[in-house]
Amino acid sequence: KKKSILSAYYRRQGEFSRWCESRQVALQETKVHHILTFLQEDLIKGLSLSSLKVQAATLGTIKGELEGFPIGCHLHVINFFKVVRLIKPPFRLVLPQWDLNLVFNALIRPTFEHLTEIHDQTLILHTIPGLTYLVVFGIVLTDSWSSG
């Protein structure tokens, strides 16, 4: 995995270890209610559902299975995520954000430069590739028409 992902995992593992120590719970003896309390505190801090799911996956790398299930597959954790989705649904913009001033400025600007304002060298550099494309396309079209 990428270094940034691994460092985030290690950071979260450290936070959970400190959280367990502050509650005098041995890391390997944590139960589902400890995991849910930890996730609940992150929810209160403002983490989104997807971030909480990443947290659960991170905790799974520490704890492994929880009462015979991977943490994300434990019934209580699944129900926790369902409730989180209900009380804090994912926010998606229906329309893309855009800047009205930018649009208006683009609309009032002249669309094209006048040919008399363009330097000859610039005009040649931009015209030749287009002409080359037209010539090649014409040859291919003519060739396919004459052979068909």
TrEMBL record:
The keyword Transmembrane helix applies. Keywords: Membrane, Transmembrane, Transmembrane helix. The keyword Transmembrane applies. The chain crosses the membrane at residues 123-142. This is Uncharacterized protein. It comes from Latimeria chalumnae (Coelacanth).
